[in-house]
């Protein structure tokens, strides 16, 4: 069934799912959406991180999330079971923020195939698994929805010693644009945010040398915070973005204008 394209959704309408919510950007997105009165379903492979996020959501909302799920986003069967669980509990899924991701820094000549496979599996195939499952449910329910993928400046500009990451994030941007086109008739918008250098555990994997190199090259003069990205996600799932689909919203302090990543 087709939903009315362009229909606004609101936080009172249903559940917002956030993957990779146990840390960094995903946690900031979950907290921002909780402040905006969304009911949340939070997903991560890291149980301790997820519990910490749950505590913070309780502080913000007074009630906690509607569900915490320790699931690997590369496991289609388990992710689909999460979607089924939410629906069985009587909730409608209105938002997915597909954020879970991994990064490791290895020169391409030494890059093991296992690392390539894992990076592409989590960052690209994981997003395919999550977006497909949620889009199927939105279409089945006949409800409009918002999907946001967390891509990267690396979706459009290559970095150093991150071939697998660059390829996965480039693919993720095209997945996002392709989904936007195919899901528009159902009233589902699909957009990407493209963070630059944001202080999180993942960015902590960068060498001191790289940090000393990149931060002074950011036109706004400093690294970003997870909450900077959460603000962009909030815009894309909110009513002001009703007519926005298939776009990449870069959140990088101007880094792409000047820096060789
Ligand atoms: N930090 C940056 O500078 C930056 C820049 C551009 C894009 N990003 C993207 O932002 C997203 C969030 O990264 P972050 O910086 O907050 O890093 P982070 O390491 O703090 O958070 C990533 C979260 O994803 C979870 N995760 C990893 N693999 C998973 C899996 N298979 N299934 C479920 N959960 C999984 C981790 O447990 C972690 O909680 C990633 O997609 C990353 O590529 C980050």
What does this structure look like?
This protein has 261 residues and is of the alpha/beta class. It has one domain (15-252): NAD(P)-binding Rossmann-like Domain (Rossmann fold). It has helices at 24-35, 47-61, 76-88, 113-141, 163-183, 208-214, 226-237, 255-258, and strands at residues 15-19, 39-44, 67-70, 93-98, 145-150, 188-195, 248-251. A seven-stranded parallel beta sheet has the order 3-2-1-4-5-6-7, sandwiched between helices. Strand 1, helix 1 (24-35) and strand 2 form a beta-alpha-beta unit. Residues 1-7 have low confidence and may be disordered. Bound molecules: nicotinamide-adenine-dinucleotide. Residues 19-20, 22-26, 44-46, 49, 72-74, 99-103, 122, 126, 150, 152, 195, 197-198, 200-203 line the site of nicotinamide-adenine-dinucleotide.
Q: What would the keywords be for this entry?
A:
disordered N terminus, globular, 15% strand, Rossmann fold
Helix-strand topology string: EHEHEHEHEHEHHEH
- Number of H- or I-type helical stretches: 8
Largest sheet: 7 strands, parallel
Mean pLDDT figure: 94
Distinct ligands, ions and cofactors found in the model: nicotinamide-adenine-dinucleotide
In the residues, how many domains can be counted? 1
Low-confidence region ranges: 1-7
């Amino acid at each position: 069934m087709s939903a009315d394209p362009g229909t606004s959704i609101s936080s009172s309408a249903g559940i917002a799912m956030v993957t990779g919510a146990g840390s960094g950007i995903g946690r900031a997105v979950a907290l921002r959406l909780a402040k905006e009165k969304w009911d949340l379903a939070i997903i991560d492979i890291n149980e301790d991180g997820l519990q910490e996020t749950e505590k913070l959501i309780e502080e913000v909302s007074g009630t906690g999330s509607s569900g915490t799920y320790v699931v690997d986003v590369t496991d289609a069967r388990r992710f689909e079971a999460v979607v089924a669980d939410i629906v069985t509990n009587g909730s409608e899924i209105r938002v997915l923020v597909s954020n879970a991701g991994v990064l490791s820094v290895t020169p391409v000549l030494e890059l093991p195939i296992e690392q390539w496979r894992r990076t592409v599996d989590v960052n690209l195939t994981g997003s395919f698994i999550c977006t497909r499952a949620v889009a199927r449910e939105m279409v089945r329910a006949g409800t409009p929805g918002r999907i946001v993928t967390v891509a990267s400046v690396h979706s459009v500009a290559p970095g150093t010693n991150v071939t697998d990451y660059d390829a996965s994030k480039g693919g993720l941007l095209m997945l996002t644009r392709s989904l936007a086109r195919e899901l528009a008739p159902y009233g589902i918008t699909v957009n990407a945010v493209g963070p630059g250098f944001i202080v999180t555990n993942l960015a902590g994997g960068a060498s001191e040398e790289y940090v000393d190199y990149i931060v002074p090259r950011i036109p706004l003069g400093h690294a970003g915070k997870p909450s900077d990205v959460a603000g962009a996600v909030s815009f894309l799932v909110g009513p002001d973005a009703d007519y926005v689909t298939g776009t990449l919203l870069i959140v990088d302090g101007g880094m792409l204008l000047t820096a060789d990543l």
